[in-house]
Amino acid sequence: MGFLLRLVKRHAGAAARRSIPRPALIAGGAIPAGFALIIVLAVGGVTASAATRAAGLASGILLDQPDHGGQPASSAAGAQAAFSRIILPDLLIVLPKGLTGPQISGLREIKGVRNIITFDGAEVTADGHKASVIGVSPSVFRSWVPLGTATDQRLWTDLAAGDFIESSQATGLPVLSAGRRYLLTGASSVRVPFAATARIGIAGVDLLVNQALSARLGLVHRVAALISAPGPSVGALTAQVRTVLGVGARVVDLRDSRLPVTTTKPGQISSYLQLFRASAAKYCPAMSWTILAAIGQIESADGQNVGPSSAGALGPMQFLPSTWAEWGIDGFGPAGTPDIMNPMDAVPSAARMLCADGASSGTQAGLRQAIFAYNHADWYVNEVLALAAEYAAEYR
After folding, report:
1. I need a labelling partner for 325 at 20 to 30 A (CA). Which of 31, 85, 139, 232 fits?
2. Residue 17 lies in a domain
3. pLDDT tens string 271-281
4. N-terminal to C-terminal alpha carbon distance within the chain
5. What is the DSSP string of 178-193?
6. DSSP 314
7. Looking at the predicted structure, is the pLDDT value of residue 155 above 60?
8. In the predicted structure, residue 387 carries a pLDDT above the cut 80
9. pLDDT class for 159, splitting at 50, 70, 90?
10. Phi/psi class of residue 247: alpha, beta or left (left: φ > 0; alpha: ψ in -120 to 50)?
């Protein structure tokens, strides 16, 4: 069976089965509540603390927020204890004949590689229609997909049970009905229940099955891999991958399209979305505005929980007063003393501080360093980057 997967790039399109928090309007100092998003993930399911956090966001009653410059607040510490990892891929690798054990070991040994996942793939037919299919371990692969899909527990339970998932970017397939069985034909023919349509995040993939079904269909074993290596430049990382795999491998950069950088400022700021973009453009041009959007949502749900926190942090960006004394500016607010409670001052101040702490480098390593300086916790860095990637996909 020929290998015809069209694995080209991570797709940033309309989300399926999820909504992300939208930056609220700024009008007369009153900021409407945003939408909720479960962010904290664990392999095998959403943690209880994550579900509680999301419920708080939805109701407008937030738990204590983490405070930069010190240890996370009590609720954040609980989330950290239960947090597994959000994994953001930097490269997609496709090798038509499949990756060997020594090749995978070689990829793992590349300096800067933190995580790698492989999966099967090939072309089959679904009720007579050609379809590109990948086979994965549900409990592992879910950490690599868009957040809205990763947090859909029923979806992954169904996949593990033997159902198949359709990508929201699938083409050439008829409309599928949940619960109905469809004939998938590869090395053998199997009638498989259809679970749901969801955003998988890899263009060219039509269907997703588990490893047991992958073996029955005869998919090419370990035909592709995702690599997470936030430190090295994409060029250096790609060169090392080609050294390990040779010229026959297809390597796709997934990092550059993840976080959009803006250089324009709106004439009049009337929403958090405009404020995030304007603040990044003026006070940290090398940093994506989506980082500010993610921090603003995580820290205060865009001004819904302005403190004080258990550690004394205040305002929409949750500055400690001592940190504000050093970094607070009257960015887009009225001239005069910077106001920690005014988003027009707080968001630009956060951009200025992040820039000084490493975001000005324009590298993934510098960005991670800056976010870590904002709140000294690895889980917080991952949470910010994951939500920023969702903003990047939603607002292009």
Report:
1. 31
2. no
3. 888 899 999 99
4. 38
5. TT-EEEEESSSEEEEE
6. B
7. yes
8. yes
9. very high
10. alpha
pLDDT category, 76, cuts 50, 70, 90? very low
How would residue 38 be classed by pLDDT, with cut points 50, 70 and 90? very low
Sign of CA dihedral 192, 197, 202, 203: positive
Q: How many CB atoms lie within 10 A of CB 58?
A: 15
Structural domain count, the chain? 2
Whether residue 59 is predicted with pLDDT greater than 80 in this model: the reply is no
> Could you tell me if 124 and 226 lie in one domain?
yes
> Do 373 and 387 have their domain in common?
yes
CA 318/CA 329 separation, integer angstroms? 15
Q: Is residue 24 part of a domain?
A: no
Picking from 161, 167, 205, 201, the residue whose alpha carbon sits closest to that of residue 179 is 161
- 326 and 378 fall within a common domain: yes
The continuous run of DSSP H or E covering 391 comes out as helix 378-394
75 and 95, same domain (yes or no): no
Residue 63 maps to a domain:
yes
Q: Is the pTM of this model over 0.85?
A: no
124 and 95 in one domain?
A: yes
Residues 58 and 162 in one domain: no
Residue 293: domain span: 41-86+260-394
